[in-house]
Amino acid sequence: MARIKLSAAAAAALLCCTVPGLAVPVISQPTTTLVPAAVTAPPVEPHTDVTSHGPYTGPPPTTTGALSTDVLAPSIPALPPGPDAYKYPSDGKLHSPEPAPYTPSGGLGTNGSAPVYKPLSDFDYESLALALYQEWIELDLFHWGLARFSVDDFEAAGLDAEDRFLIEYMADQEVGHATMVSNILGTEAPKQCNYNYPVTTVREYIDFCQKLTRFGEAGVYGYLNHLDARDVGQLLLQSITVEARQQMAFRQFEGLFPMPEWFEVGIPQSWAWTLLAPYISSCPPDQTRLVWQNFPALHILNQPNPLRVNGADVWDETLGDNLNTASAHDVAPDQDCVNATGVGINCSPAVTHNRSAPLSYPGRQVFLQWDTPGQAVGPNNSYVTSTAAGQPTFAAWVSQLNVTYSPLMNVSGSTAYTVQPDISVYEGDPAANGTIFLALTDLDLYVTPFNLSMLNPHVYAVSIYQAG
Ligand SMILES: *[C@@H]1O[C@H](CO)[C@@H](O)[C@H](O)[C@H]1NC(C)=O
Ligand SMILES: *[C@@H]1O[C@H](CO)[C@@H](O)[C@H](O)[C@H]1NC(C)=O
Ligand SMILES: *[C@@H]1O[C@H](CO)[C@@H](O)[C@H](O)[C@H]1NC(C)=O
Ligand SMILES: *[C@@H]1O[C@H](CO)[C@@H](O)[C@H](O)[C@H]1NC(C)=O
Ligand SMILES: *[C@@H]1O[C@H](CO)[C@@H](O)[C@H](O)[C@H]1NC(C)=O
Ligand SMILES: *[C@@H]1O[C@H](CO)[C@@H](O)[C@H](O)[C@H]1NC(C)=O
Ligand SMILES: *[C@@H]1O[C@H](CO)[C@@H](O)[C@H](O)[C@H]1NC(C)=O
Ligand SMILES: *[C@@H]1O[C@H](CO)[C@@H](O)[C@H](O)[C@H]1NC(C)=O
């Protein structure tokens, strides 16, 4: 073991000035002889690598429709700001005594009450149960892709063994998230289900993962600050920040710009459930059901295709599913960006890429088609799509901090087009970029990030738009 050798004089000099009890400075060397006692880690929630995938083919469901109780009104009336909304002066000075040193007064959950990490309301329980359905599908999806596609398939998409290990690791992260949320919910927590994915190639799979993690992430941001149980919100925050990193990593695997936005978007729970449920084929008996609404599907007929050099120049290149996942089938080799050479053209997996031809742009005509309500979706086909909205008249672009409406044009039956608006959150930050949400509404209701769910009674259909 090496130690600094001090000359006698130096040692004496040191000792002379050393306060008793303070260590003599030495350069510490790591030792391998200490064996800390192993602390038993809590067990994870039981889960399997689900072997059966595909559409539901079993008997009609034993229960149908969302969980429900007495419904008091068709919508929540809009009110002016609360009585204290403007009370705090916000002038950089302190306005109340401090409860302890270095501790400003105020805050929620700061009075010393022990956190207990339990839901406090139906709102909390239903939001967490939705989060758990999401964690379970991600756990399955990440494993499924690794099992479904060969090493050669992944290599052809530019994803090597280290990339595949990252996907495997993401699945492990989901085990932890599912365990945490299950523990919070208790014995009736929703269990892992069986799933059905539309993708048939690795690059479609990556696009699907990128879109699925986007609504998983945004779904939680939409309610996190509305939870009654702030202690639960803290744990959820610390899992959803991992989900956000997964979403970005999948964008990078797809060769997209990792985060072409200054703010991440939040959406209401029913939007997330609308986008999630169609990929669940069946759930175990007595599975805890959800209260959330399933809106009809919105098909974006010229959904931008990130697999193309010019991804905006497309028609009908999705898998036809609720997420409008990119299809690889009609992309000719000379239009495919994965092996194309040159900055702005190539979209092989990377930390970041520029695109010479953006996936979308303000002024782009976006052609839409929507399903009618009343269709069976989700686990065992046991949920039914519904809307309280009249004939759709607007497209709502929901991204970053903004909800912006563009009128539907040439509405004919269940088709129309709209024009991608030119909006910025702040100067220099075009709002519609990245993987965003597009909804059809019957009203251009003014909503902001904390009251977006007030739009639900006016929502007809919801999907994801690949703006960039
Ligand atoms: C859904 O299907 C599974 C498998 O067939 C079955 O065990 C379960 O009870 C069904 N649930 C409902 C609500 O029908
Ligand atoms: C402290 O705050 C909690 C909510 O976080 C509340 O339930 C509790 O009653 C408060 N306790 C006191 C002593 O004010
Ligand atoms: C891209 O290149 C890889 C490796 O040469 C190849 O396996 C793959 O098929 C190519 N993909 C396309 C779309 O050209
Ligand atoms: C990438 O795009 C930005 C913004 O358009 C541009 O300023 C930059 O020069 C581009 N970089 C390369 C290497 O093309
Ligand atoms: C999205 O952001 C990327 C990267 O900054 C940029 O190249 C592209 O033009 C943007 N697209 C839109 C629609 O603003
Ligand atoms: C919309 O309808 C008008 C009038 O019928 C027609 O001239 C125009 O081509 C239509 N636009 C699109 C994009 O279909
Ligand atoms: C977008 O959001 C920002 C920040 O809240 C707001 O100032 C701006 O007015 C919004 N833009 C539109 C077009 O709604
Ligand atoms: C949503 O909040 C904004 C203020 O941020 C308010 O002006 C608007 O009226 C609210 N919308 C509804 C439908 O309550």
List keywords for this structure.
468 residues; alpha+beta; four-stranded antiparallel β-sheet; 7 helices; disordered N terminus; binds 2-acetamido-2-deoxy-beta-D-glucopyranose; signal; Rds1
Describe what this molecule looks like in 3D:
By secondary structure, this protein is α+β, with helices and mostly antiparallel strands. The protein contains seven helices and twelve strands. The chain has one domain. The protein is 26% helix and 12% strand. Strand 9 (409-412) and strand 10 form a beta hairpin. Helix 2 (122-148) packs antiparallel against helix 5, helix 2 (122-148) packs parallel to helix 7 (269-276) and helix 5 packs antiparallel against helix 6 (230-253). Mean pLDDT is 94; it is low at 1-18. The structure holds 2-acetamido-2-deoxy-beta-D-glucopyranose (8 copies). It comes from Lasiosphaeria ovina. This is Ferritin-like domain-containing protein.
Task: Please outline the helices and strands.
Layout: H1 8-17, H2 122-148, H3 151-156, H4 161-185, E1 194-195, H5 202-224, H6 230-253, H7 269-276, E2 280-282, E3 298-300, E4 365-370, E5 376-377, E6 383-384, E7 394-399, E8 402-407, E9 409-412, E10 415-419, E11 435-441, E12 459-466
Antiparallel strand pairs: 1-2, 3-4, 4-10, 5-6, 7-8, 7-11, 9-10, 11-12
The structure holds 2-acetamido-2-deoxy-beta-D-glucopyranose (NAG) (8 copies).
One 2-acetamido-2-deoxy-beta-D-glucopyranose binds next to loops.
Quick take:
It contains seven helices and twelve strands. It is α+β, with helices and mostly antiparallel strands and 468 residues long.
